[in-house]
TrEMBL record:
<feature type="site" description="Important for catalytic activity">
    <location>
        <position position="218"/>
    </location>
</feature>
<dbReference type="GO" id="GO:0006281">
    <property type="term" value="P:DNA repair"/>
</dbReference>
<feature type="binding site">
    <location>
        <position position="7"/>
    </location>
    <ligand>
        <name>Mg(2+)</name>
    </ligand>
</feature>
<dbReference type="InterPro" id="IPR004808">
    <property type="entry name" value="AP_endonuc_1"/>
</dbReference>
<dbReference type="GO" id="GO:0003677">
    <property type="term" value="F:DNA binding"/>
</dbReference>
<dbReference type="Pfam" id="PF03372">
    <property type="entry name" value="Exo_endo_phos"/>
</dbReference>
<keyword id="KW-0460">Magnesium</keyword>
<comment type="similarity">
    <text>Belongs to the DNA repair enzymes AP/ExoA family.</text>
</comment>
<keyword id="KW-0464">Manganese</keyword>
<keyword id="KW-0378">Hydrolase</keyword>
<dbReference type="GO" id="GO:0008311">
    <property type="term" value="F:double-stranded DNA 3'-5' DNA exonuclease activity"/>
</dbReference>
<feature type="domain" description="Endonuclease/exonuclease/phosphatase">
    <location>
        <begin position="4"/>
        <end position="248"/>
    </location>
</feature>
<dbReference type="InterPro" id="IPR036691">
    <property type="entry name" value="Endo/exonu/phosph_ase_sf"/>
</dbReference>
<feature type="binding site">
    <location>
        <position position="34"/>
    </location>
    <ligand>
        <name>Mg(2+)</name>
    </ligand>
</feature>
<feature type="binding site">
    <location>
        <position position="248"/>
    </location>
    <ligand>
        <name>Mg(2+)</name>
    </ligand>
</feature>
<dbReference type="GO" id="GO:0046872">
    <property type="term" value="F:metal ion binding"/>
</dbReference>
<feature type="site" description="Interaction with DNA substrate">
    <location>
        <position position="248"/>
    </location>
</feature>
Amino acid sequence: MKIATYNVNGVNGRLPVLLRWLQESAPDVACLQELKAPQEKFPEQAILDAGYNAIWHGQKSWNGVAILAKNAEIKEVRRVLPGDPEDIHSRYIEAVVNGITIGCLYLPNGNPAPGPKFDYKLKWFERLTLHAAELFASGKPVVLTGDYNVMPTEIDVYKPERWVDDALFRPETRAAFAKLTAQGWTDAIRKLYPNDTIYTFWDYFRNAYGRNAGLRIDHFLLSPHLDKRLKAAGVDKNVRGWEKSSDHAPVWVELED
């Protein structure tokens, strides 16, 4: 079973890129972030025509998350991260596909830091960690994947010294990610490639993609059930080089059936 995550940076504006990637990569499940489309503007028919069922939580202009499944039923569990009834951002959606609970998330950026946006990021992280603990304790096979907006270590960022004050790399952010993974989750990419330079995001400016001046901010966290089934993982880096592509590249894992 192949599960992928992809921050599409606008699902309608980059629909040709998304559809081409779905055809070429053919994941069984695809988690999308930054739809940047209200609920009624999600391109459901185009996704269906590509062979995928979909659930999504849209939001006008910003955010938005979706889970797609190829020829499989998607049983939605929730579309809001618990813990703050006043939070209206569409940043989390959770479903069961083929017996696996999949949480698709788009963690806040948090810049400028310090400030209210950074405070919101850390509070959202706390809510995610609490919910993740419940999922982990359930004993079910669980994937938590998406754009975490965190570079966990210095190996995950090009020239880390330039990022010390950024919300994606501040000590509080990295500590929050470490606290989450310490519950027992496996960072799939780092399990298979503990010391490799691997990025999932390249800015549009300063030829970042051409220079491979990137960040690893899109992650797969696997519960112990799935850690045992992990057989491959990678980044479809070439997709970032396509015309009118997102500034993120798709990330994927393959699990033994």
